[in-house]
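Appendix C. Worked example: YncE family protein
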Amino acid sequence: MRRISMGGTSMGSRGLWLSLAWLGASTALGCGRREALPAPEDPGAEPPTQPAQLAQPAQPEEPAAPLQESRVERDGLSIAFALRPLDRGQQGGESGLGAAPAAAVAGSDVVAEFTITDASTGAPVRGLTPLGWMSRRAGADGAAAASFSGGAPEASLASGAPAASLASGVSAASLASGAVDAAPDEAACRGKIRSFMAGLLSVRPEVDMNAYLLWTLNQDNTLSAINPQVTLARTQLRSVVSLAGPGVSFVLHPDRESLYVTLRGGRGLAVVDTRRGLVRTNVPVGQDPSRVVIAPDGRTVWVGNDGDRTVSVIDARSTDVLKTLPVGPGHHEIAFTGGGRAAWITSQQGESVAVVDGETLEPLGEIAVGEGVVSIAASDEAGVVHAANAARGEVVVLDAARRAVAGRVALKPGLGALQFDPRGRFSFALNPTANEVAVLDGATGAVAHTLSGLAAPDAVTFTGAFAYIRNRGAARVSLVDRAALGGAAAPPLVNIAVGQGPPLAAAARPGPAALATPIAPLPEGNGALVASPADKALYVYVEGMMAPIGTLPSYGREPRSLLVEDRSLKEVRPGVYATTVRLGEGGRYDVELLLDRPRTGVCLEATVAPARCAPGDGEADGSGCGGDPVKDIAIAPLFEPDLRLAAGEPATLRFRATAGEGGPPLDAEDIEVMVVRFPTGYRFRGAPRAEGDGTFSVAFTPPAPGQYRFLAAVPGRGAPVGALPSVPLRVSPRGAGAHVGGGR
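Step 2, the predicted output written as structure tokens:
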């Protein structure tokens, strides 16, 4: 068995566990030669794909025009950096929201994209693992930032300024006056990358392209997005998403742009925009939606409706319900075989497993397995499907090709969750009643090992080296060495204490077949995050340690389920590495890139245009940012100024949003609403609901007494968050006689 010792190397969050060892003396770091990179003009060239299009290969789109581009050449590589709009729908193309922005604006979300090719042949360089950052240059908020307009300023063109300056939108006057510091030389570039790799709090980039977000599904009707900083001692609650009802289960789309959450109380399926941190739409499905899964190709979302014997199949892009499939009664679980060509659907109170064609959505047949199946898992590698029958205490082995029962494995009654390991060799059948886990060999259908000594195991997650089993009845997670599963002896359990109280002590209780997913692997694959609802905390564990290395707060909520949204650079097309980032303040930026093959570090550059005003401005007088109003956009609150609300009591905030003459009327999808608590801390983002005649409303429950600001934004019309005046809100303690003031 692989030993877990206290002497193992341990790192914390991404940036803290990125090793410095491979950034040694042999690493070639430098700034290289900067040039302006013109926009692609070859109509036959294959356009780069943004992350949003990864899961939609059959619907290619013309790439958005770059907001910024620059290039360096070093060590035989040509490296281009571009900032691009998120997508055509948000930036004006298909949705009719107006013209695409001409500049990368402070505080906005954009796609950061590196294109790496062979400098001699132009061939894409594939299979890299790049790390990227953006750091604001000292003196960057002078005339250079103010003069940026997305193209070359007239003064720059007239003066004959260098091409790189024109591409970045910096005026010749700025260059001559020294308002912006010079680009870093090779030594400075090397030093900045070393500092970012070390995770020093004293030297932090404004934009980190190697980050990830933690999404928690809480016991109330909220989702939390937590952004870990470079050390585990500091975290940032990025946003809290209010749902129309308590969430049951959730899943992240492979493109990392949408979360799908099933809701109790007939509220359907919530589609959450992960970029903006708000509900994009609520999709009506059947009664009591429970399990939600995404097909392997990312095109469809499947929802089991436990209350009406159906499964809803939804188009992931349009959110239209493609078909409602009649299945059996009771709770439904769904698994896919053949890369998604067939969907296998269980019905706990039915006698059969239904098999449906994943493309045509037509039934392929039913397989009699007996009443009581609570979970199902599939392995394309083994060509089998395993279904756990809790009442009978058996696992039914189904032949995926023949769609027939191949065998039955007798275990103990009380089975719960069932899952195959990533290689598809072994399935883990958890039994919280018998306090054990049966490990089945997918090739033979026999029990390979029985793991005992557990405390109501109800969830399992895998990394490259270990299986992580959550003990619902104890404050610990049990690790199983996956490399030892092929041996004759059962691998011993390594128990890691997590938290102070067992999950059973929490107010929230797991749903059917352990719908909660309380453990999520770290993006590096060398550890996991564990949600502890009893402690209202998240624990970070790195393999090689005997205890978690850090704790992240859940901000007073009980986290039931957890998943990780990896926002690091990914190869989206051959030689093209991209991710979505949120830009910092306006000004000139150095863009630092570190490659693993060859070990090369380079510094490029970009310019971010200032926002009309920052969301925090105007705090003293409560009158908003103080900037000029955005042309043709007007937001008028329909509640009294200085409205007082009560902590913990829901309120409905109504407002009127209008566009000027000649522009299309505003829809609810165009508008974002944010409520910020001052001076720092809580941020709420919500999707407004249209009430007709230009009136909109958003439901908001303030968590604690204090001073708040209501901000509305229309990003597609050039009014990002902070560009429109804010409205002050006062929240009193509950029961203190809050003044309604038309807000409810």
